[in-house]
Amino acid sequence: MASPERNKQILLNLVKQPSNDHCADCGAPEPDWASYKLGVFVCVNCSGTHRDLPAISRIKSIRLDFWDDSLVEFMKTRGNAAANAFYEKCVPPFYYRPQEKDCVVLKDQWIRAKYERREFTGENNFLQQGYSSGIYEGILWKKGKDNKQFLKRRFLLSETDFTLRYFTNEDSKKPKAVISMKDLNAVFQPEKIGHAHGLQISYLEEERTRNLFVYHDNSQEIVSCFNAIRATRFAYLKNVYPNARDSDLVPLITRSSVKEGYMEKTGPTQWEPFKKRWFILNLTDRKLSYFKTLLDALELGAVFIGTEGHGYSVRESQPKGSRGGRWRFGVTLETPDRQFVFLCDQEQDQREWIEAFKLVISQPMLPQHYNTEANMRRMKK
């Protein structure tokens, strides 16, 4: 007869092992759930997708559920390391592996690709063609430039010339825009866009950031589109840096912002009225971009963030003489050219923005950052 307490203790010991102490799918620490069909330990969030795949995976809590002796013995012979060695054997280097804080659609499709479709075991490599063939064509819903409507647009991605094109209708031969992979970025923004599959595509247009907000109702399709973009960006980077290692290029494929949100901003004299703007702070290019609203297509302006040694600093305060806005929690950013004053709605926002600025300022500048700084200064003249 199974001993519940003994089996529970065995499972608790197993989940403490180095290969099992993080979720097999998203890397979240201290997983409390396990699939007794796959032999993996997973977090509570990933366990939800596993429950949706009863033919592939069966889930139990390692603390709360009853475990039969045979199931515990099975878990002892498996584990995350062995499972991932099989199910992740052939993951392309560009393919995005979701982390704990990533959105649901990324984690859901990663789990389905791993276990349900077995895209990475070496058995079904043809299933990777949707995002690794060097070309992607599909219909996405894109937010209109001057309104809130989302309209169907045809997108065409090509490794041949490292571009992303989109067309105003399915039959059009002349693209509305031809976007180079050089500065393109893609990141999921479901809350911001208001759709669970919302994807933000950003690029530079005459040195100013332009955003496209898109989605697809099919979760597999939008994640395939995202990974197709990553595949093309990766091919572009390998073309530009032929001697670089894959491990050095992968972090450069796409990027997430350090911090996003509304702040109020005043002008250079600090006597201008404060205006509410949506700010995005990126570490990769060390830019603080600002937009009129969170779903604006075109950047209003940007501030380069250098290091302390180059005259950049941030502090909590509001210099005297600045005309107050509706918000009261100030952030002052010092640059060699001028002082910027921002106001936050909440004290927590103020602390988070200051920490985000400090993070960027603390990182050493790379050669490309000096070019970015010079270009931005030239644009302001």
Automatic annotation (TrEMBL):
Protein name: ArfGAP with dual PH domains 2
PANTHER family xref list: ARF-GAP WITH DUAL PH DOMAIN-CONTAINING PROTEIN 1-LIKE PROTEIN, ARF-GAP WITH DUAL PH DOMAIN-CONTAINING PROTEIN 2
Transmembrane segments: none
Domain PH, chain residue ranges per copy: 256-362
Pfam family for this entry, one: PH
Arf-GAP domain mapped to chain residues: 8-121
Organismal lineage: Eukaryota, Metazoa, Chordata, Craniata, Vertebrata
Species name: Coregonus suidteri
InterPro entries assigned to the protein according to its UniProt record, in alphabetical order: Arf-GAP_dual-PH_domain, ARFGAP/RecO, ArfGAP_dom, ArfGAP_dom_sf, PH-like_dom_sf, PH1_ADAP, PH2_ADAP, PH_domain
